[in-house]
Amino acid sequence: MGNASAGDRAIWGEFHRDWERLALESAEVLQTLSGKEKLRSDDVLEVNAEPSYEGLTKSVLTKVRVKQSFFRKSVLAGYQNRCCISGVLEQKLLVASHIVPWSEDKLNRLNPRNGLCLSSLHDRAFDQGLITVTPDFKVRVAQKLKSQRDNDMIDSAIVKMDGRSIRLPEKFLPDRDFLLWHNKYRFERL
Question: How many CB atoms lie within 10 A of CB 157?
Answer without folding.
Answer: 17
